[in-house]
Structure formats: C-alpha cells, structure tokens
Specification:
53% of the residues lie in helices and 3% in strands. With 193 residues, it is mostly helical. It has a single domain, classed as Up-down Bundle (Four Helix Bundle (Hemerythrin (Met), subunit A)).
Length: 193
C-alpha cells in the first residue's frame, strides 16, 4: 500500500480511539450539553462528523472514474497550494469559525452516545475501505467534486486528508465543550472525560 494511504489508515485508527475516549463515561446529559445556544454539544460534534456518509458517493464516483480511465500512479503525490491550504484550514485549533452547510448539520434531537459513537466508528471503517480501494490510483489526477459545493474540487488524496483534518477539528471542538466551565458533573477542564 502507498505510504500516504497507509498513514491515513493509521490516522483513522487514532481518530477512532479519540472518539471512543471522548465518549467514554459521558452521561446522556453531558453528551448533549451545549456550552451556549449557538454552540454544539459533544454529541452534535460527533454527529456532524457522521455526515461523512453524505460525501461517500462522490468519493466512490471518483474512484470508479479513475479506475475506468486507468488513472494509475505509484506517486509520490504533491498537491497544489489550494489543496494544501484547504486541508490546513481544517486542522485544529481552527483559524476561524466556518458556517456549516445545512446538509451537514447534526441531528437536532437529543443524541444517544452509544448510537452516535457506533456510527462514528463504522463510518471511519467505511472511509478506510475507500482509502484501501484507492491504492494504486493517481491520487492527484483523480479529483473529487464536493457534494457540498460545486466550487470545491480536490484531488482524491487531498480530499481524504481534508476529511481526516475535519475529524480532528471537531474532536478538538468536542474536547473544548468538556473543558467549558459549567459542564455538567464537573467544573470544566476535562470534567466528565
């Protein structure tokens, strides 16, 4: 397997471990507690990450097209400045707040920690399957058209990196919720974790 993809699979395992650790021991109340009316709970952060299922068809289409067109390469892959900037902009801590597209909003009802975590872990496994399937493809020439905005097009390898950075961003955000003074069952700074 290409080294870049292998590193992504390792990142997925770290993200899954962090998701498990984040939810471990949280009560239903803690999981759904919002620090402010316009801020997400731990549950909403994770449920937002579960909307990754909505971008899988675009990734599948890109992989199918790359296979059909014979876009093969062993790399190495160097992505352009725009792709690198988009990926970097997702890494925590955030440089700035971004508005979420409505199709990626978390569920608005109280969320069950075990169900959200189960989906989170399963969806990371599904992302890993797509990364494995991309092995041998030209990760730069195969381009994903974002289902969120027709203006966002990224090379497949950069799109995978973007999704993993996005995971890290919102896991960081969820940790900030737990560290907020007033978090139920503690005084913040890691209470409940």
């Amino acid at each position: 397997m290409h080294r870049e993809l292998q590193e992504m699979l390792e990142q997925i395992e770290k993200v899954k471990a962090e998701g498990r650790a984040l939810v471990a021991g949280l009560s239903h109340e803690q999981f759904n507690w919002r620090p402010a009316p316009n801020r997400w709970s731990v549950g909403e952060c994770l449920d937002h990450l579960n909307t990754i299922r909505k971008v899988f068809p675009a990734i599948d289409h890109t992989i199918d097209e790359a296979e059909r067109r014979g876009l093969k390469s062993v790399g190495p892959f160097r992505y352009g400045w725009w792709s690198r900037l988009v990926v970097r902009s997702m890494e925590p801590p955030p440089w700035f707040r971004m508005r979420t597209f409505p199709m990626l909003f978390p569920a608005s009802t109280p969320l069950a920690p075990s169900e959200v975590l189960r989906d989170f872990l399963e969806l990371r496994d599904q992302l890993g399957q797509r990364i494995r399937r991309a092995d041998g493809l030209d990760l730069k020439r195969a381009v994903v058209q974002s289902p969120v905005s027709r203006f966002v097009r990224l090379p497949l390898g950069a799109y995978f990196a973007f999704l993993l950075a996005h995971d890290r961003r919102h896991l960081w955000q969820a940790r900030q919720v737990i560290a907020t003074p007033g978090f139920p069952g503690g005084t913040g700074a890691g209470a409940g974790a």
